[in-house]
């Protein structure tokens, strides 16, 4: 059953990205000037919401007493370490040299959401990015294998990365598309509703997001050694299909996309413009340790071709990279997607409107995405969030 669940997930979710494989060669004429990287955290235990759908509540509570609900598992920690290894290999001295082997605070900015699983993912990933060089070895034992690297996190109620939980406008928009979808996309799953009601006690027609919740529950349960329940096996593939439709509701409209990824895009464009203008820009590598919705949101606002087919897995990573041609001075932007750190190869994707080349002229890219730009202060205004920022 484990193999079947994994196979269903891999076929549907992990091989839908359309792009060219990355062999990480450094192109002699292209110098990387800036990189914004957003990753999803590693594998986690079930959330409280997922637990409400489970018939194995007590067993799950016993199995997760150390990590707690939504906590990073040991497998998740290993995945986080692989994220860091990828970053070091691509952006460090062996790759495009945005990062030094030694930690310099002016080279890197790391932002995590306030969730424990994303903060822990950031910490473990950074341990792989910066194994201590002699100059920064601060202890004869631990100091030779681990270098502390800081990251920042805003309060949950103010973080634009958590727009799906703290932005009233976004939640109102989501409720609207959910109500519409019940009578449209999800009609084909009406025959499953009585089964799900009997087995979980929940009415899935009232909230189609429950299809996503139950698939996430099964993934977490299987990882903890609990089989998919017998009643779900015959309908598992259809449940997964419904979960994909539910996931797509989070980016159903252009306004939802702008709220979700517009701030990150705006910060990238602002930094890129300063670099192109010849201004001094520090922290040219910017990492966001976040969630699947953040990975997907940045894809959506940068107009990744067929982004609607991608549901980011644990340990996935998406990057937008700015390059300067040494010969012509032209600036281009490249989208890079890593479906699963440590288990898959990274791919070059395409921006819609730049299908003929993975590298998109910067001015063209900026023009293609300008409708999604969202300054951080405007985000707080739209979302009715009170902050001192």
UniProtKB/TrEMBL annotation:
| First and last residue of the signal peptide | 1-19
EC numbers on record: 3.1.3.2
Query: Catalysed reaction per UniProt?
Result: a phosphate monoester + H2O = an alcohol + phosphate
What molecular functions are annotated in GO for this chain? Answer: acid phosphatase activity
* Superkingdom assignment: Eukaryota
Q: What are the UniProt keywords, alphabetically? A: Disulfide bond, Glycoprotein, Hydrolase, Signal
Tagged with keyword Nucleotide-binding: no
One Pfam family recorded for the sequence: His_Phos_2
Which InterPro entries would you find in this protein's record? Acid_Pase_AS (IPR033379), His_Pase_clade-2 (IPR000560), Histidine_acid_phosphatase (IPR050645)
This one is known as acid phosphatase
Protein's organism: Parnassius apollo
